[in-house]
Amino acid sequence: MTEPLSFGIDAILELMPHRYPFLLIDRVTALDPWRSMAAYKNITYNEPQFQGHFPNFPVLPGVMIIESMCQVGAVFIALSRRHDPEAIPDGLDLPDLAGRVAFFAAADKVKFRQPVRPGDRLDIEVRLLRFGSRIWKVAARAQVDGRKAAEAELTSVLTDA
């Protein structure tokens, strides 16, 4: 990450269609447009999934960790376009993002390394692997206290809403 910065929840809400309880990013902390981005999600006990997963040992479900990483990937593309629109990789013509939604399309090389629990801060980094006008792939890594919690290669597709 080359440029430390901070985009809070207001900027994220502007970029993402997700809302509670499924908005899974709290803050963007670094952006290197078209290369990488870092963000985090605070994990709190009052989130609805902890009522049943698991009541005596609450753990963030793996699918929600993957979804968090996907959301960071979507915000990464939107912020890269906003902050450096001239540097789109390979000179591709990325369509206007207004009125479009990035849908999660595939997960490869998924590995979960440790449980994520209430009180943790899930730090997520994404790095661009491939990019097309409607499809992109990122390498994502999630950590808690500097220890790897999960990793994956994630593909998203941009569609009309």
Q: Could you walk me through the main structural features you see in this protein, from its secondary elements to its overall organization?
A:
The chain is an alpha+beta fold and 161 residues long. The protein contains 2 helices and 7 strands, in the order βαββαββββ. It has a single domain (4-160), classed as Thiol Ester Dehydrase, Chain A, CATH 3.10.129. A 7-stranded antiparallel β-sheet has the order 1-2-3-5-6-7-4. The mean pLDDT is 92.
CATH superfamily: Hotdog Thioesterase
SSE string, helices as H and strands as E: EHEEHEEEE
User: In angstroms, what separates the terminal alpha carbons?
Assistant: 31 Å
Q: What best-fitting shape do the alpha-carbon axes yield? A: globular
How large is the count of helical segments? 2
CATH topology: Thiol Ester Dehydrase, Chain A
Secondary structure layout plus pairing:
Elements: E1 4-7, H1 9-15, E2 27-32, E3 36-42, H2 62-83, E4 100-112, E5 121-131, E6 135-144, E7 147-160
Antiparallel strand pairs: 1-2, 2-3, 3-5, 4-7, 5-6, 6-7
Q: Could you write a compact summary of the structure shown?
A:
With 161 residues, this protein is an alpha+beta fold. Helices cover 18% and strands 40% of the residues. It has one domain: Hotdog Thioesterase (Thiol Ester Dehydrase, Chain A), CATH 3.10.129.10.
